[in-house]
Description:
This protein has about 80 residues and is an alpha+beta fold. Helices cover about 20% and strands about 30% of the residues. It has helices at about 35-45, 75-80, and strands at about 5-10, 20-25, 30-35, 60-65.
Amino acid sequence: MDQHIQIDITKVHGDGNLVEGGMYTGGSWVRIAMSKNDYETLVREGFFIRDGKSKDSAGVINTTNTFYPEKKINDAKQTRRS
Length: 82
């Protein structure tokens, strides 16, 4: 199975203290929530890639790049390099 992670933000709650969205992991999706302060920090740091001011056609306010795990080096190759 293709392993990757991407996070979409789909809702900023009316009280302004919580954002909600989903995390995609390969073939799975899980709901996530975080404080608005944490979300704004991640936006400033460039983790989320949009400005977060409007929804796209899929209803997503903001998203991340898609992250893929690094390929593991075969143990035999590591041993030969030592």
